[in-house]
Structures are given as C-alpha cells and as structure tokens.
Amino acid sequence: RAGIEIIACYFIVLLLSVSNNWVGQVLKIDGLWTGVVFYLLVASIILFYVVKIEKRPLSSIGLKGITLKEIVFGILIGILMFIVQQIPLILMGMDYKMFASPPNWIHIGIMSLYCIFCVGFTEELMVRGFILHKSLEITNHKIIVILLNGIIFYMIHWPPVRFVFGEAFNITLNTIILCTYFFVSKRKSITPLIIAHGVYDIISAYLLPAFVYVMIT
After folding, report:
1. Residue-wise over 83-122: b if at least 16 C-beta within 10 A, else e?
2. Whether the Cβ atoms of residue 200 and residue 75 lie closer than 8 Å to each other
3. Sign (positive/negative) of CA torsion 103, 104, 110, 111?
4. For residue 105, what are the contacts with CB-CB under 8 A and spacing of at least 6?
C-alpha cells in the first residue's frame, strides 16, 4: 500500500504541475501566482489525505510545532547546503559574474516568503514528510530510503530541471543533507527542513545574484 501511495502522490503532483503550467500559459498568468496555487493544492491534498482519509495526526509525517532551536538549525542547514554546493564550482574556477543581477529588494522579499511558505513547506511536506515516512513503511534501511527520496525529489523537479550533472549533484546533495538531519534529530520534525529548503532557495536564486552584482559594481 505504501508503494502505491508514493506512486499516486508523484503522479498527482505531475498532473497538477502540467495542468498548472497549461492554465498559466493559456490565461497568461504570472508564474508566481500559478506557483502559489500549485503548491497550495499539493499541500492541501496531502494534509487532507493524512488527516481525513488515514485519520492520523500531522505529527505522523513530521509536521510538528516549531521551536527557536529548530529555526536556527534550519537557517544553518540551508546555508550549509549552499556553501557545500559552491565548493566544486570554486575548484573549477567558476566565474560568478555570470550570476550577477541588480537587486530588487521588494521582489526578493516577496520571493523569500514564497520560497519558505510555498516551495519549502510543500516540497518538504511531500518529499521528506509524506514520501519519506511511506518509504520507511517499505524498508528500514535508511540508505535505501535516502536513495529513493533523492530519485523522487529529482523526478518531481524534472522538468524544468534537466538531466545534467550539476543539477543532479545539487538535488542529490540536498537530499542527503536533509534526510540525514531528519534521521539524526530527536524530534523527527520536518520544520527545520522546510526552513532550510527555503533559505537555500533564497540564497541561491536571489541573494547570490544580488551579492555578486553589488561586488562588481
């Protein structure tokens, strides 16, 4: 049953993603708003299924009350994910000027909220919350669970993520760090993972381009 639920979850997300993109193109709606609708729909379906269909508490998929300590850990994990991913780029002599973009701080503020409360919340709820816990019902081998989690996490991002080494490396590394933290933590809460996911996206997509632009101008 757990395997069927994982497969169903993936295809529901895929269907919603394709439908959302199609509606956005036809109606010419800004990608931010279609993204908000998509993530809210996915999160709502998962929460409804767990609470109403399975009749289990949200804590059963790691969604627990937040603590100050977990906020700090989440921020640090997000920063760590970003730093570790830069090491290969630095060793290869990456020219960061190509990432430079003039900062629009209002836009960055709005997108930061989107990264945490839409992207981070929904993707961690789905992948490290629902799917990871369902995977543990299939096998107790954590390495296999992490491997499966990484594959599904990559498949959810493809497309638009392409099958290239850099993107596969980033997703794999993020999966290992997030899953490892979850397994070694005592509370088994996905809240720090939500924060880490959001912080990583904010730094990578918005703060890095702004920082590089300021440094070269």
Report:
1. eebeeeeeeeeeeeeeebeeeeeeebeebbebbbbbbbbb
2. no
3. negative
4. none
Phi-psi region of 30 (alpha: psi -120 to 50; beta: other; left: phi over 0): beta
Tens-digit pLDDT profile for the chain (217 aa)?
Answer: 899 999 999 999 989 888 888 887 887 777 788 899 999 999 999 999 999 999 999 999 999 999 999 999 999 999 999 999 998 888 888 888 988 999 999 999 999 999 999 999 999 999 999 999 999 999 999 999 999 999 999 888 766 555 556 678 888 999 999 999 999 999 999 999 999 999 999 999 999 999 999 999 8
DSSP notation for 80-129: HHHHHHHHHHHHTT--GGGG-----HHHHHHHHHHIIIIIIHHHHIIIII
Contacts of 56 (CB under 8 A, 6+ apart): 50
| Helix then strand then coil, % of the chain, to nearest 5 | 80, 0, 20
Token pair, residue 131, equals 């799917």
